[in-house]
Amino acid sequence: MQKNFWKDGVRFECQGTGRCCVSRGTHGYVYLTLKDRKRFAKHLGVSTQVFSKAHCVKSDGWYHLKGPEGACQFLKEKSCTVYEARPAQCRTWPFWPENMNAKTWNEEVTTFCPGIGKGRLYSAEEIEDLLKQDPLNQ
Ligand code: SF4
Question: For ligand 1, what atom is nearest to the CA of residue 89?
Fold first, then answer.
């Protein structure tokens, strides 16, 4: 993966717009690993099976939250109602593999997300760790 534009790190701080919870780019779904589903289920006080049946769909072998179009089912008034239990895909925004090339970053991510360039500096090493948490590469 080309690293030049983020080799010195990237500043990011969520501004709470909820935009990444409404439109997720090529991550059209909020994908969930087994760990994500277990965390969600524990947070909601149900079994992983009950959570998965009530809130998830499986497409092409991958679990994701129900609802491919529009806002996430857990977004209410621009706030995540399951913030503590949010899945890896949400925790790692904007450091998704599909975003980490200069063209996509400069033409799409920086215009889409007002948190880019704000807040603390994520080092290249931290970004690499976040990239490894991509739910589609587990
Ligand atoms: S789980 Fe929370 S952070 Fe993730 S897309 Fe839904 S509302 Fe947003």
Answer: 4
DSSP helix/strand/coil, 121 = strand
pLDDT for 2-16, tens place per residue?
678 999 999 999 999
Q: Retrieve residue 46's tokens.
A: 């149900």
Residues 68, 22: contact at Cβ < 8 Å?
Answer: no
DSSP string, 43-111: HHTS-HHHHHHHHEEEETTEEEES-SSSS-TTEETTEETTGGG--HHHHTTT--GGG-SHHHIIIIIHH
- The residue whose two tokens read 């006080």 is 45
Task: Indicate if ligand 1 lies below 6 Å from the C-beta of 75.
Answer: yes
- Protein residue whose Cα sits closest to atom 8 of ligand 1: 21
